[in-house]
Amino acid sequence: KSSVQTIGEEQIQNPYTELLVLKGHQDIVRFLVQIDDCRFASAGDDGIIFLWNAQTGEKLFELHGHTHKITAIAPFSSSDASEEKKHLILTASADRTVIVWDCTSGRQVQKVSCFHSTVKCLTVLQRLDVWLSGGSDLCVWNRKLDLLCKTSHLTDAGISALVELPKNCVAATVGKELVIFRLIASDDGSEGWNVLEVKRLVDHQDNILSLVSVNDLTFVTGSHVGELIVWDALDWTKQACECNFWDSSVPPDVQPEIKLSQSPNETSVQHLTSDEECVFAAVGKGIYVYNLQMKRVIACQRTAHDSSVLHIEKLPNRQLISCSEDGSVRIWELREKQQLPAEPVPTGFFNMWGFGRASKQANQAAKKMQDNTPMYFLELVGDLIGHSSAVQMFLYFGELGLATCSADHLIILWKDGERESRLRSLTLFQKLAQNGDFQLKF
Amino acid sequence: MISAPDVVAFTREEELEDELCSEPPLPEEYSVPLFPFASHGANPWAKVAGSKFTRDFILISEFSEQVGPQPLLTIPDDAKVSGTFDLNYFSLRIMSVDYQASFVGHPPGSAYPKLNFVEDSKVVLGDSKEGAFAYVHHLTLYDLEARGFVRPFCMAYISADEHKIMQQFQELSAEFSKASECLKTGNRKAFANELEKKLKDLDYTRTVLHNETEIQKKANDKGYYTTQAIEKANELASVEKSIIEHQDLLKQIRSYPYRKLKESDFHPYEPECALGQANAGCGQDLTASDPAEPGETHLYAHVPSYTPKLIKAKSAKCFDKKLKTLEELCDIYFFTQTLDQLHQIERTFRGDVCYLLTDQISRALLKQQSVTNFLFEDVSFLDEKPPEKQYRGCRGLSQDAVDRKCSEESPAPKVVISLGAYKSSVECVPIKMEQEIEDSQEPKMTESVTFEHQENLDYLDADIKGSISSGESIEVLGTEKSASGLTKSESQASLPVSPSPQAGRSKVGSRRTVSEDSIEVLSTCPSESLIPEDFKASYPSAINEEPYADDEEGGLRFTPKLNPDNADEQEDVSKQENLVQVDSSCCIGKESPNFLEPLPDLGQKPCDEDGVVRIPPQPYRQAEQGLRGSFGGFPSHDGISGGFLSYELDSRYLTGSREVSKSSLDECSDSTSYISSAASTCSDRTPSPAHPACQARERHKKKAGQNALRFIRQYPFAHPAIYSLLSGRTLIVLGEEEAIVKKLVTALSIFVPNCGVYAKPVKHWVTSPLHVVDFQKWKLIGLQRMASPAGVNVLHALSRYSRYVSVLDADSKTLRCPLYKGTLVSRLADHRTQIKRGSTYYMHVQSILTQLCSKAFLFTFCHHLHLPISEREPEESVVNRRMNFLKLQLGLANEDIKIVQYLAELLKLQYIQEPGQGVNPLLRFDYVPSFLYKI
């Protein structure tokens, strides 16, 4: 029944051969945020924020202050004005407060509790040295936690995502709408800002679930019904739209006309990430790679997981990591597949694995794509099984490994066993030299 | 790959013993004739078949002032133990050589009776006629009603194995001193109570008498005193004197310096809980489990209310008066404590001496492996004993090998004189020889030391007379002055007795003891043919000491080569020396100590070329150093025991099952005894843990060993299962029945490497679904299989995490785990092994695992295997070097590499772990396919 690709127990390319379970949370862990090269913070429904050492797994601090679950978290590194860099994090909670924490001392710096509704998203505009909180209204704050300005009450649903755009603009998702705000320096003071609603975009048919900025020129949104729209970041026009991820038999069309034959959950765009070329979308159980230049999906894995994919991230080495409600984390590699465009694709094979590219490619090739386009596919190179419940998010630390957080209250640090072993040897010999044990009794 | 096992020896789930017992015996005609004396409780391996008791035991005797020496109790308290052995007779033997000084009563120049806080004396006695050898610990208890307030007692550890007594002297002495201290403390408490009561009585008597006198005075108006009145006055005066005397005694007994006890690590008594304990009638483990308990703070504070009686002026000192029993002499709590301690001693030293020695040596060695020993050993027990002790024992051995020559020339100063049993003569030569004066190696020796020894000799002298006149056959093999109780200075602090007269006396005494008597005896010494074979080893030493008898000038100095008097003796000496040399040259044990580091401090040697033991009068811990002499003084014995060990192991391998089953029928009173005693000597072969906790551990070892043995015979896929454990992959034993699963888990637990110094990562029984955290924590898990929906979850979790675990299904007898193609495990778990006994197999496993540990150690601590030699060296070449080392240098094949790598990781983690925080539990795993094994 399951068409999910499996890899088996032999995973040569999977570097993660050691794991460290970090215990501390008492409820679902939803957020992981990197503080610096080797520290990260975790937060979740228990309202506690933990700071961890990503190398050793050591628990650095346990931050108590919120009485309800954490709804948003954002790192807030100080500007280079002061000598040493000060690492702060902002946390918003369902108790309608936002707290600023000092990551070095583990202390609460300041607390804001004048919100009328839960803050659902936080964004730091480093350039302007202000931060924004999004709930039922949008507030702009400075570093000293002074409220600079705020919008009027938008909707009850409130802002669910914020992204910074060029020209002092921000894009906020409010339900089905995408609202563009602009920050304007106030006339009276140097510190003052005013916020203005510039534009409302209503192209999505359903709630916008994900919002990501690709570069200075483009940003992408994804909705609950599987629409993916590429926007121009400067004039907020629609550059491209992809909305039929779920149906490979129908040629992709710019217009979202296709009737939904599947449940929305199967097609909702849960998470988006991007590099310069492509947008990677977690759609339902699948992963899709959308090339911005070609304006089409170049690779996909329709059922990458047993259940909804919650978070995906692109690694520098053409690898992609996804995590899902099924409790697994999978590592994919985007591989090039040289194909002659005219040649009919052995659809049977791909269908077996849930690939939908064959016919799509044929159609697109017929439409406008030039020949000899290298086609891609996502190859499963490894999976990480450790959590017993949905993996909410993960944080890639490069060499240090991978941190995953889950609804089973755990954070797991996945590490390269070889590297760890080497590091331990190094530590060992350092300690030996330190203790002068070389001469001693061995 | 999977073949049926050649032998499935045990198919049922009963205990191995049952298995063996229920085996039908062979028909008579096929059976090998049994050892003819088997029925007498002896066996072919018994060294002294003549002994009349079956196993070692402890005897407590008293020199009763009414009936003379009499046995009080034996431990174990079982008539079978002593068998036909004449306890009365032996009590007479051992009590007749009490070297303890007991100057109690009115010493010259003192107005009041003085209590002497006598130190215990420790001697080794042999009675070759009885085939009994004993460590005898003399002690004195106080009794107000006894003559001189003292009652001499002795505790003796009696064994048929002389070597055991000699070689374990140090340990025996330590353990018995604990028991003795405990008993004496209780006795002091009881004595103080008794004194208080007596004082109250006297006080009351005085009041009464006083009143009577007053009445008489009033009644008497004649102006002169009647005889009655004078009598009364005298009576009153004597009561007054008595009160003063008793008060003085009470003061003395209370002034016993408790500080001393607090210094030692033996604090078994805490008054508050003491009473409770005593009432409960147990207090089994208190001695060992609570060593840190504070010492007695107000020991004599609690005195029950007492109604005083009138005391007759002349207390009846007649012989029909019943003396107090030992139990009455001692506070009940301390008495039970003492008994517990004695039971513990019995358990500890039970078994063959080679076992004891091997255990001690291996423990000492293990202690040295501080980096690796946590892997497969229970490190906690290593810490229980004071570390010096283990090292000492070992060093004593190693020194033996190093200083072989020296010890041969002047062996065993402890050993005194031996005599043929047939001659009715006794000689007792003080063991504690005076220090060589021209000793250059021990410059630390001070005057006080000398004095101490002299005084000791003096004591000896004082007590020896009786035994000399007894004219019985006794060999005094050695003695040892106790240093446990008090140092000299402290005992004197409480006793303001001038030491000078004693010192003066001692000189005379020692000379006399050492003079003609012993020479006479020695000249009538029988030819050596009459001496039991294994006794010879210690014999020469006795001979060697003769010249010392002649050496009038030097007092106690002796020079082995100069004995002009007796040509026969000279001959004897040379003969014996040859014997010793032969012994030591062929010994195996000699080699083993070479592994140890050479003795760092030669100045610490217990014996110098003259074979003089110098034991500085120190409290216990320090005294161990000196006591080492007992260990080092018997080079040939080491050889014997070493040889014996291998021989025994052989015999154990060879013992057929028939024999095993036969011997397993032997009554073994203790549940810990082995199923087979076929290879045992006259004493019980039970292993000898040193502590009560070890007892359980030992039992567990045996059980685990048995179960493991059964497992590897029963399951053809034992190898991959064991490989899983050794390589750190969690093995889950899945089954419906808890007992079966637990048994398997126990069996397999011996293969699980520890992740830290704490408990083994073994979970015997789990009923809930497993999580990844469990695999991080546990390496061996017993898991319940259930039919219920909950059970489905359990299985689901198992399949989900299948990459981290190997699953041994106890119900369907399948194993799902990665392939194993190495060679190491086959040596570890050969299903065709000839090993029959659980404990033997356990030791076999331990030895191979230890080997493995050393490989892991080597691998871990070779710098270039892990880090580049130069800055520019690429990582690949390091990896190559590493693999080459593993394959070529360590000779590891295939999966064996992973085992060593895993152990190396554990070593690293342990080593780099910061003190204070535990090892971060991490889970290492490999992405390797698993296979399903079936029977």
Automatic annotation (TrEMBL), chain A:
Placement of WD repeats on the sequence: 22-62, 63-111, 302-342
InterPro entries, per database record: WD40/YVTN_repeat-like_dom_sf (IPR015943), WD40_PAC1 (IPR020472), WD40_repeat_CS (IPR019775), WD40_repeat_dom_sf (IPR036322), WD40_rpt (IPR001680), WDR41 (IPR040102)
Top-level division of the source organism's lineage: Eukaryota
SMART domains: WD40
One Gene Ontology CC term in the entry: lysosomal membrane
PROSITE patterns from the UniProt entry: WD_REPEATS_1, WD_REPEATS_2, WD_REPEATS_REGION
Protein localization: Cytoplasm
Quaternary structure annotation from Swiss-Prot or TrEMBL: Component of the C9orf72-SMCR8 complex, at least composed of C9orf72, SMCR8 and WDR41. The complex is formed of two protomers, each individually consisting of one molecule each of C9orf72, SMCR8 and WDR41. The protomers homodimerize via an interaction between C9orf72 (via C-terminus) and SMCR8 (via N-terminus). Within each protomer SMCR8 (via DENN domain) acts as a bridging protein between WDR41 (via C-terminus and N-terminus) and C9orf72 (via C-terminus). The C9orf72-SMCR8 complex associates with the ULK1/ATG1 kinase complex.
Protein's recorded name: WD repeat-containing protein 41
TrEMBL record, chain B:
Alphabetized GO MF terms: GTPase activator activity; guanyl-nucleotide exchange factor activity
UniProt feature, compositional bias: Polar residues: 481-503
PROSITE patterns: DENN_FLCN_SMCR8 (PS51834)
Subcellular localization, as worded in the UniProt entry: Cytoplasm
Pfam families in the record: Folliculin
Keyword Cytoplasm: yes
GO biological process: autophagy
InterPro entries xref list: FLCN/SMCR8_DENN, Folliculin/SMCR8_longin
UDENN FLCN/SMCR8-type domain span: 48-908
Principal location class: cytoplasm
Single GO cellular component term: guanyl-nucleotide exchange factor complex
Keywords: Autophagy, Cytoplasm, Guanine-nucleotide releasing factor
Region annotation (Disordered) ranges: 481-519, 545-573
Family: Belongs to the SMCR8 family.
Protein's recorded name: Guanine nucleotide exchange protein SMCR8
Organism annotation: Eudyptes sclateri (Erect-crested penguin)
Gene (UniProt): SMCR8
